[in-house]
Amino acid sequence: MEMTKEIMYDQFKTLKSNDEKVKYLVDLKEMKQKTPHVFRNIKISIKQFNNLIKEYSSLVPFSAMKRDC
What we know:
Strand content: under 5%
Helix content: 55-70%
Number of helices: 4
Shape: globular
Distance between the termini: 40 Å
Number of domains: 1
Order of helices and strands: HHHH
């Protein structure tokens, strides 16, 4: 099965807590490392997954970005 952006966004939207989102992102990152062909049409790197995991693990996700606006 191939992962598409739409599938990834829809699944992410259904998650309520940040802990669930972090777990989902970690699972996606591991899947990308083990089976990169599944993510063939999605341009996201392991570093980008790490950055998202770091942000959603923080107390207030994307607070620095919100503060700059």
